[in-house]
Hints:
Blueprint: E1 3-7, H1 15-26, E2 31-34, E3 47-48, H2 60-63, H3 67-71, E4 81-86, E5 104-108, H4 113-116, H5 127-143, E6 149-152, H6 155-165, E7 170-171, H7 178-183, H8 190-197, E8 204-207, H9 217-226, E9 230-233, H10 239-248, E10 253-255, H11 261-270, E11 273-276, H12 284-291, E12 296-299, H13 304-307, E13 314-317, H14 322-332, H15 337-344, H16 349-364
Parallel strand pairs: 1-2, 1-4, 2-3, 4-5, 5-6, 6-7, 8-9, 8-11, 9-10, 11-12, 12-13
Helix pairs in contact: 9-14, 12-15
Amino acid sequence: xxxxxxxxxxxxxxxxENVFETLSDLxxxxxxYCLWDDxxxxxxxxxxxxxxxxxxxGKKSVALPLMPIAWRNLPAIEADWxxxxxxxxxxxxxxxxxxxxxxxxVYAHTPARYVWVPDLDGRGGGLAARAVSGLLKPLDRRRxxxxxxxxxxxxxxxxxxxxxxxxxxxxxxxxxxxxxxANAAPTLSDAEQxxxxxxxxxxxxxxxxxxxxKRLDLVIEAGVASGVPVVIAGExxxxxxxxxxxxxxxxRVEFVGRPSRALLAELYRRARAVVFAPIEDxxxxxxxxxxxxxxxxxxxxxxxxxxxxxxxxxxxxxxWSLGALRDxxxxxxxxxxxxxxxxxxxxxxxxxADRIRSWTFAHTGVAA
Length: 368
């Protein structure tokens, strides 16, 4: 049976891109479509939408109101099933021709956060975005009734799907490259080795884009509470504020920029704990950390609370006070790296592949 895979826009890196890449490997004969492909060659042979030929290409905030229109104007193709990888409006996808009546499945990373939960997403906070959101909600909910089945990337997202779209969904956690972080002996460049050697021997670690909603300020607060130095990896507009906070709190904080995968693996492995405070739909960072044998101090709200096992592979935080952070760091110090690694294996790419195969076959009869 001929199938088609659909994704939002494609970039060089990203958790949703990892899912799309795995789906592409599982269904190598499927045609693939996206809004635009800016992956710099990571993906090839992916058809782009009409939006890719407009000035809105790559400008997500500008393109947002146009995305539902683009997804409803896909070409005539033959396909016996359609599988959409959606975190905005890819689940709106509709082809002309025989594919129009093919069963549609959706792997939902989330209903569009800036439409449905703007308080969790800085892109949805402005007046214009909220006005667009009010117009898009009824349309998005209506088109979310089209799929024959929906999979969610966490129970946290499944609950949002139920509240936003009024649909049940099956939880299938996304693939994480557990093997790399568990088994790789990364080869560092001389500059990276020098960077590692200059860091404290014992530290708490935070990694992400340096933007306010990632809550890297709480990594610094964990260092203040415990007296343990902090290392932060990433780049972004919040760096100046974070540096100022570190200085005002008299905390030792080292910023290492955007690390390579090899350097990231070594930073995970050497850390006493990873502090992961944002509210994320799933959260790949905690699983990568656990695969490295490092426990995680994670937010009780969001997908990280589903991967981190409180008291065994980390601490789930309901309270981010200094006292609670001090206790969390102390508890993390006693956790077994082998238990962390074993937990991470439950989120491997092979586990994802097995579950997607079974789910897709149950609803389409397609065997990958």
